[in-house]
Structure formats: C-alpha cells, structure tokens
Amino acid sequence: MEDRSKELYMKMNEFSSVVSLLGAHRNVVHAVGGLSARVSQLDSRTCQVENAVGDLKDSVVFNHGRIEVEIRELGNSLEEVGGLFQALTIFIRSRIKD
Fold first, then answer.
1. Distance in angstroms (rounded) separating the CA atoms of residues 33 and 20
2. Which domain of life does this protein belong to (predicted)?
3. pLDDT of residue 8
4. What's the CA gap between 50 and 43, in Å, rounded?
5. Which domain holds residue 72?
6. pLDDT tens digit string along 14-52?
7. How many structural domains comprise the chain?
C-alpha cells in the first residue's frame, strides 16, 4: 500500500506542476494580449500623427505659396506707387518752374 500512496503522491505533484504551468501560461497569454492591444493602439496613434504631419506640411506649402503671391503683389503695388510718386514729383516740379 505504501508504494501505491507514493505513486499517488507523485502523480498529484505532477498534476500540481501541470496546473501551475497552465496558470503561468495563462498569465503569459494574458500579458501578450495586453501588449498586442497596446501595439495596435500605438499603430493607430502613429497613423494619426503621420496624417496630422502630412496635413501640416500641406498647410505650410499652401501658406508659403500664398505668401509669395502676396509679397509679389505688394512689390507690384509698391512699384506702381513709386511710379505715381515720380509722376507726381515731375508734375509738381513742372508747376513750380512755371
């Protein structure tokens, strides 16, 4: 009977070890699932950041082009004012001489 008790004790120890390993395995699977969710969330947020940076780049390019046009128009206006100023100066000088 003693051998039978010993054998039963050893099988219970083996069973206990297997149950313990399964518990550890379940914990690892749970942890990996959590990591997987976080990686998915990180991927999603990375896409959002990439899209925001792309939008910002497009906005900067658009605004840069618009500013160039406005500067060019301002330069044209200044040239026109300069021409009118010269014409006015010539007109005033011609009236002063008379």
1. 20
2. Eukaryota
3. 76
4. 10
5. 1-98
6. 878 877 877 777 777 788 788 888 899 999 999 999 999
7. 1
